[in-house]
Specification:
Blueprint: E1 8-12, H1 17-28, E2 32-37, H2 40-53, E3 58-62, H3 68-82, E4 87-90, H4 105-132, E5 136-141, H5 154-176, E6 181-188, H6 197-202, H7 206-214, H8 225-236, E7 247-250
Parallel strand pairs: 1-2, 1-4, 2-3, 4-5, 5-6, 6-7
Helix pairs in contact: 1-2, 1-8, 3-4, 4-5
The protein binds nicotinamide-adenine-dinucleotide.
The site of nicotinamide-adenine-dinucleotide (NAD) has 29 residues, from helix 1.
Length: 257
Amino acid sequence: MGRVAGKKAFITGGAQGLGACFARMLASEGAKVVVTDVNSKGAERTALEIDAAFPGSAAFCHHDVTRRDDWENALGMAAEFMGGVNVLVNNAGVGGWGNIETETLEGWRRTLDIDVDSIFIGTQMAMPYLKASQPASIINISSVAGLIAHGDMLAYNAAKAAVWMMSKSIALHCARAGYDIRCNSVHPVFTRTPIIEPLVALGGGGKSGEDKLTRQIPLQRLGEPEDVGYAVLYLASDESRFITASEFKIDGGITAQ
Ligand SMILES: NC(=O)c1ccc[n+]([C@@H]2O[C@H](COP(=O)([O-])OP(=O)(O)OC[C@H]3O[C@@H](n4cnc5c(N)ncnc54)[C@H](O)[C@@H]3O)[C@@H](O)[C@H]2O)c1
């Protein structure tokens, strides 16, 4: 029996990077997974690859997380494919680079729309499904940028801090209502996925760009997607049944400094 055998996991932003890794790890431990992304081709690729390894375990759906109609469609499709939804991984997100003098209102709104509003809309729409398939777990992917600031990450800092606190509010509501639905946030540091490529480029690209990032991390390396995946696996499983309203820092020690 796998650690998440019988779980029904809905993972946004699963075309690549962390979301694809979470889907693979959850399926390898016995979950059914539905991978969604605005990049349908990528989501399809992830699902096909997983389904080849674990037949019948994975499906995909086109899904722009900023759109209510897409959420409705994707959740309905997922519930049908998996027989319900009891793990929601709000992972889709975008970075943002700009300070208080350079950020545009358009850029600010886009970051908040994709990284924060989507989690409000989607989690609210997923609640009936989660309530119908308890015990359930909501896992929101925030960032160390939700806990510590950078002068050039104005919108991203604000967005990821909102995800952190929103997760606690969701958790407390569910607990008070007597639902067996937990909600926690995960806070990775720089992890090897396409989202950090602009940061590596800013530092001169290649190895020297990566070195600039790793120098800030006490453990002296970038995160790997699996480092974050193990936290998601734990939070999706019943091993974490007493954990709610918590934040999991997967950060090589950076936030301790
Ligand atoms: N990799 C890191 O260093 C790191 C660190 C901290 C937090 N995070 C967070 O982890 C999450 C995953 O990031 P990643 O590193 O895998 O990045 P990534 O860019 O590789 O993947 C993000 C995915 O989200 C999808 N996406 C973007 N906008 C979308 C939308 N409107 N609707 C649906 N899907 C959309 C993209 O198509 C992409 O597949 C993000 O929330 C990110 O902020 C990443």
